[in-house]
Amino acid sequence: MSKSKLHATKHGNVTLGNSKIFFLEMTRLLRSRSFKNPWAIDFAEGKEKGTFVATAIQPIEIINNHLGYKISFDLKEFYDAPTNYRIIGAARFEEMKPESETQKTTWDQNRAEVYRKSPMNMFRAMITNKQEQEGFFLYGDKAGGSASMNMRSDIFANELGKSVVPYKPAQLVTPADKPGEYLINLKGRIEIHYQKGYAQVNTYADAPYPVSWLEVNKGIVRVRENGMVLNPQDLVFSGDMDQKRISTLLPLDYDAEKAIQLQNLVRTAANFQEKIYLHTDKPYYYAGDPLFFKAYFNYGNPYLRDELSKVLHVELITENRDFVLQKKFPIRDGIVVGNITLPDSLNQEKYFIRAYTNWNKNYGPKHYFTASLGILSPFQR
Q1: pTM of the model
Q2: Domain 274-380 in CATH: superfamily?
Q3: What is the pLDDT of residues 342-363, one digit of tens each?
Q4: Annotated domain spans of the chain
Q5: What superkingdom does the record give (predicted)?
Q6: Burial code of 15-52, b = ≥16 C-beta within 10 A, e = fewer?
């Protein structure tokens, strides 16, 4: 058996002869992950043609900047074949300290995104029969249909009912012999469509979302109530879920329900935001001039436009935020067209035009529209 030291390219590929092993999946995550000690891994050709195995002389250190974790992975077994792979080991997670509130929010969102489309979330949803609500639609091979993907068309609508049918066993889930554990009945090859996601490469032309396949030894998946699989050695994924490797792992104590609820709350609040953009007809004015403007609204959710504000407040204020004038204008279809007359008493102080709605007050002054307004001396005419 010949051995070759690991060679890692800048793209994260592991090269052995003319073959490439994607130890860390080739997705957008590669750009934000740092493989700290690639020299610790030895790859060797397997006993079967086209297969490779790997060993590590020390835990593999990974900095996952996409999810905000330092991962120490103790590799026990690595096996890669043309049709499947197997990685066995223990991962220890250390949560990284975010450099800003923005980075913390990004990490929270990325973790929730990874969890939403994960097998763990799918199995958790199956326990309460909410897998379709979470976006997971299951199909099985139809008896007598074409089991080979090479014999199928690339139009799922044509294959549904012909080669694949919805997977709806009489009893999908049964309680196991231990409290808090369940047995999920998945016989044969299960085709999984995650309809809440988007695929870079479509399996079917009319299904622009990730598609995976799952085969389970003896047809039983044993899980805990949070969806954690207790017999992972019996599961073989292919397709999109086949790409979920070390770098997309989440800690076993990851509180997915809390994270998703917080994310949904943020999204819900964002739906009700309305941002104002106001344009004036000139870059500067003289005291006593009319000022014409047009204001546009950008809604967090355009469908809620008619449910939000109906009145726009427009103000002229000084640098010290003293009011010079205030006026209200009706909002129609997310647009306001109006004018104000500047007082004759204006001097060359610094003035600002400010626009907001009563709803904006819920988010604070930073959500108001404010712009400086140039006022010239009448002697500059």
Answers
A1: 0.58
A2: Macroglobulin (MG2) domain (2.60.40.1930)
A3: 998 888 678 999 999 999 888 8
A4: 119-243, 274-380
A5: Eukaryota
A6: ebeeeebbbbbebebbeebebeeeebbebebeeeeebb
